[in-house]
Amino acid sequence: MQKYQDVRIAVAPMMDWTDRHCRFFHRQLTRRALLYTEMVVADAVIHGARERLLGFDDVEHPVALQLGGSDPRKLAEAAVIGEALGYDEINLNVGCPSDRVQSGTFGACLMKTPLLVAECVSAMKAAVKIPVTVKCRIGVDEQDPEPALDTLADGVLAAGADALWVHARKAWLEGLSPKENRDIPPLDYPRVYRLKARKPNKFIGINGGIQSLDEVSEHLGHVDGAMLGRAAYHTPGILTGVDAAFYGELPAAFDYAALIDAMADYAARHIEKGGRLGHVTRHMVGLFHGLPGARRYRQILSTDANRPGAGPDVLKAAFAAIDFAAAEAEAA
């Protein structure tokens, strides 16, 4: 199990995006970054179809299970299940602003009840041996981010949370859609830096709007970890530089042909189990962003890969559209 002080880079949990196929793909790009599941509600973990909701490939390690909920007993039970299934970390969602999570009294609205969040963390810590962490916002609605974030952080860290990941935006639960909440509230990175200054001996990670590894490096001068979200999803090639830049591994030319072979084999296994090629390739559309042939690659994965009966040969045909020689000539 990875020690939390070894965590530097993570790929954010993202609803409808970071499913098991996405995580398998991302793990081919970086061996070291911490990967997160989509948020899974505690009740679903306890009562739902566990293989469908929680199944993952061993190659995904280190991988964390993100839970949604506000009942300490249920969250503890769900955490025990996650630990038994082999997850490396349990994370509590205190940041998602969607209507669905508000109606269930979890997600970002829990910023308003920091004592309850601390109780949830305490219950999970008592139930499992793996790290328990929290992902939150700097505040919600009319809250002042200074006392709101400090109060939440003080409570969960005192309750034993191994890390606090902070999305450096407020969430507006009234007046903004979940999509708007990802863009409209202004980013306030210095607020997260101030929290780290207050908690020098605690792991504080930052999330929100980080677009490049250079930006990651800048943040790591102030906090312990950085979490890539949409940049990792829409332009996943960014992840190929993570291990060399932040984990001391020797930089090497990335073997994209080997990656495509691995993903084709994985897709074939998924199809054999009744899945569809598009379930896998939808996460790969942005892989060659900016390279000659990328447009044709995207077209093939967006159309042919979603046709009934599509097989791994479609992925290889898409890859063949990328002109690496032209890319090298442009870079020279």
Automatic annotation (TrEMBL):
It holds the Pfam family Dus. Residues 11-307 form the DUS-like FMN-binding domain. It is an enzyme of class 1 (oxidoreductase). The active site is at residue 96. The keyword Transferase does not apply. FMN binds at residues 13-15, 66, 135, 167, 207-209, 229-230. Its EC number is 1.3.1.91. InterPro entries: Aldolase_TIM (IPR013785), DUS-like_FMN-bd (IPR035587), DUS_fam (IPR001269), DusA (IPR004653), tRNA_hU_synthase_CS (IPR018517). The keyword Metal-binding does not apply. Keywords: Flavoprotein, FMN, NADP, Nucleotide-binding, Oxidoreductase, RNA-binding, tRNA processing, tRNA-binding. Gene3D superfamilies: 1.20.120.1460, Aldolase class I. Its cofactor is FMN. One of its GO terms (molecular function) is flavin adenine dinucleotide binding. It catalyses: 5,6-dihydrouridine(20a) in tRNA + NADP(+) = uridine(20a) in tRNA + NADPH + H(+); 5,6-dihydrouridine(20a) in tRNA + NAD(+) = uridine(20a) in tRNA + NADH + H(+); 5,6-dihydrouridine(20) in tRNA + NAD(+) = uridine(20) in tRNA + NADH + H(+); 5,6-dihydrouridine(20) in tRNA + NADP(+) = uridine(20) in tRNA + NADPH + H(+). The record marks 93, 179, 182, 295, 298 as: Interacts with tRNA. Catalyzes the synthesis of 5,6-dihydrouridine (D), a modified base found in the D-loop of most tRNAs, via the reduction of the C5-C6 double bond in target uridines. Specifically modifies U20 and U20a in tRNAs. Belongs to the Dus family. DusA subfamily. PANTHER family: FMN-LINKED OXIDOREDUCTASES SUPERFAMILY PROTEIN (PTHR42907). This is tRNA-dihydrouridine(20/20a) synthase. It comes from Rhizobium loti.
